[in-house]
Amino acid sequence: MRISPHKHQQIRLKNWSITLAILCLVGALAWLSNRYSAEADITRNSSNSLSQASQKLLGSLPDQIHLTAYIKKDPGLRSQITQLVDRYKRRKADLTLTFVDPDSQPEKIRELNIDATGAVIVEYQTRTEKLNFIDESSLTNALLQLANANERWITFLSGHGERAADGIANFDFGQFGKELDRRKIKAQSINLATVPAIPDNSALLVLSAPSVPLLAGEIELIKGYIRQGGNLLLLTDPANHNLEELLQVLGLRQLPGTLVDSNSKLYGINDPSFVVTGDYPPHQITQGFQTITVYPVTAALEISEETDYHPVALMKSGAKSWTETGPVAGKILFDADGDEKQGPFAFAYSLTRPSANSKQAQEQRIVVIGDGDFLSNAYLGNVGNLDMGLRMINWLIHDDRFIDIPAKIASDKNLQLSQIGVAVIGFGFLIVIPVLLLGSGFYIWRKRRQR
């Protein structure tokens, strides 16, 4: 059949019209996709989506969120962080992420106490949180803490050689006090010998290894504070017996000697008096915490069976630890025939009980640690010490609104194929599919030639 020129022109015009319509449709779809987003997570456990708790929290944050990742130029690690943050940006458009090479800003790195592995600084309403490890749980809980704009007060006991919350000496807590202030947790010092009362606005009393004994009247004031359900952070040191009476009230006993742990060598620390731990029990303080913490010159603690509190051992030394009663110098060995005891030992406890104060519905919370140095200016920047200290303070003042976001583990990540299955797939992709494509192309070409 012969096609007339007029008919041929109509067919060409029809083809051009169809092509133009398709291009317009593609352009419209591109414009709509840029203006409106539609997505669906088809993974079995929704591993590419935020949990409902994270989505709800983002909806309650009206202001801009900025994340600064001080990460070296590692494309793989930066890509993982970007993918995580993109999930948040889909729910909150004014959330931004900036990458900074730590080597380009050494002074800022020292100011923020960021180690060689890097960190992510989360900023919201002029307040910041530092994350050494980032996943949905840690980022969401950091945003939850930043959302709290209420000012809180904690009291540090002074007048007995304690570590000062605003001190600049190596053994003081000045840097930790600044970190608390950035989170609207105000630290105040009080000498009970001159002001015989603990302020009513204080949510927590901190006793940091006094170097001289407390007066009998001061001890009674603190006992009364404990009886009334006051929250307490008690830090002691080896050979420091100035808080023994208060430890007895809590049902704790400080073991003689210094806790030494040969496992510290595994972390490159040659001083056995440094206790390093990275294994934490289930607790609100340690929930989702995956960073090691370092405790220099530590005392082991022992809990009494007759305590009125519910105790949880927060930190323990390794199986190769013991209480060294002699000088920790040179080569030291465990003396089984002496007063030394073989570990592992707990050196940090959390204690809880229903509040004795009828006006206070919350439970009483106490943390006792056999080391007063891990939050000092000299050691605060070591690995996870700052984060652990902040977690303890938040828990003690009942600001523990951590969200439990379970890790999303992808199921069926591995595909196991038999040798026959591998052969069939290889034969199909390498031979069958190319032959079918060539055959169909040849058939279409022949049909067009026959017209």
UniProtKB/TrEMBL annotation:
Q: Which SUPFAM superfamilies match?
A: Class I glutamine amidotransferase-like (SSF52317)
Protein's UniProt name: ABC transporter
Record domain DUF7088: where: 47-122
Protein species of origin: Candidatus Methylobacter oryzae
The major lineage groups are: Bacteria, Pseudomonadati, Pseudomonadota, Gammaproteobacteria, Methylococcales
ABC-type uncharacterised transport system domain: which residues? 154-379
List residues traversing the bilayer. Answer: 420-445
Keyword hit for Transmembrane = yes
User: Which Pfam family is an annotated match for this chain, by its short name?
Assistant: ABC_transp_aux
Keywords, alphabetical: Membrane, Transmembrane, Transmembrane helix
Q: Which InterPro entries match?
A: ABC_transp_unknown, Class_I_gatase-like, DUF7088
